[in-house]
Amino acid sequence: MSTAKKIAVVTGGNRGLGFEASRQLAKQGYKVILTSRDEATGKGAAEKLQAEGLDVISYSLDVTSESSSRNLAEFIRQQFGKLDVLINNAAIFIDAQAGSTSIFHTKIETLQQTIDTNVYGVLRVTQALVPLMKAQNYGRIVNVSSGAGQLTDMGSGMTTYRISKTALNALTRIFASELHGTNILVNSVCPGWVKTDMGGQDAPRTPEEGVETIVWLATLADGGATGGFFRDRLPIDW
């Protein structure tokens, strides 16, 4: 079964940037599959958006699981026959609760756990879903990164988070290179410091402001940018 409506997947869609990106894409007429590791919180988030009259459904996805990622792909294939947009938003930031943020005291286990979600998770999900884009020669992939991963401005603190976002940016470049010549555009975005559970209440940006560039990249016209890193709709240094 296929649909004329564009289909979007947002990982980690149950709160924060993922929730707001789901809302804004649905407002633009997309059918949004809001994914969450926890089935109940994902369902609750989708119901909130459905109550606003938006076409959003929830799906339980564990990005650290290859079989879970494959199951999502099969669900989309059976239900819709295609995928137009993937926003790789699901991420963890556990440096602070893991103890010292100095790289000289960072536990390898903390890095492994962070990489498993923030990097391998994006790779697993993208590997599973990109065939649905290739089949129709159309796709927009947005990897939610961070200025914390910029090598040009690399500092200390947030060690495992920084490393994971730098690696995520490498994935963006590799995806874009391999998909060169197709109509599948892949970009990284730094949403800025946003008031979310991860960003905290001192952050200057609202979730609406944080997702503006994410949604812009997800809805780029054919021939748009690919293999870039953006903040506020402008390219930034890697």
Description:
- There is one protein chain.
- The protein has a single domain (7-235), classed as NAD(P)-binding Rossmann-like Domain (Rossmann fold, 3-Layer(aba) Sandwich).
- It has 6 helices and 8 strands; from the N terminus they run E-H-E-H-E-H-E-H-E-H-E-H-E-E.
- The chain has helices spanning 16-27, 39-50, 66-79, 108-134, 159-178, 207-218, and strands at 7-10, 31-36, 56-60, 85-88, 139-144, 184-189, 229-231, 234-235.
- Strands 3-2-1-4-5-6-7-8 form an 8-stranded mixed β-sheet, sandwiched between helices.
- Helix 3 runs parallel beside helix 4 (108-134) and helix 4 runs parallel beside helix 5 (159-178).
- The N and C termini lie far apart (41 Å).
- The mean pLDDT is 95.
Key terms:
238 residues; alpha/beta; Rossmann fold; eight-stranded mixed sheet; 8 strands; globular
Helices and strands in order, then pairings?
Elements: E1 7-10, H1 16-27, E2 31-36, H2 39-50, E3 56-60, H3 66-79, E4 85-88, H4 108-134, E5 139-144, H5 159-178, E6 184-189, H6 207-218, E7 229-231, E8 234-235
Helix pairs in contact: 1-6, 3-4, 4-5
Structure, briefly:
Helix content is 41%, strand content 15%. The chain has 238 residues and is an alpha/beta fold.
The separation of the N and C termini measures 41 Å
Named at the architecture level, the CATH assignment is 3-Layer(aba) Sandwich
Category from helices, strands and their pairing: alpha/beta
Number of domains: 1
| Annotated CATH topology | Rossmann fold
Strand order within the widest beta sheet? 3-2-1-4-5-6-7-8
Q: Biggest sheet, open or closed, and with what strands and sense?
A: 8 strands, mixed
**Inertia-based shape:** globular
The helix tally amounts to 6
Number of strands: 8
Unreliable residue runs: none
- Average per-residue pLDDT, rounded, comes to 95
How much β-strand is present in the residues?
15-25%
Helix content class: 40-55%
- Strand/helix succession: EHEHEHEHEHEHEE
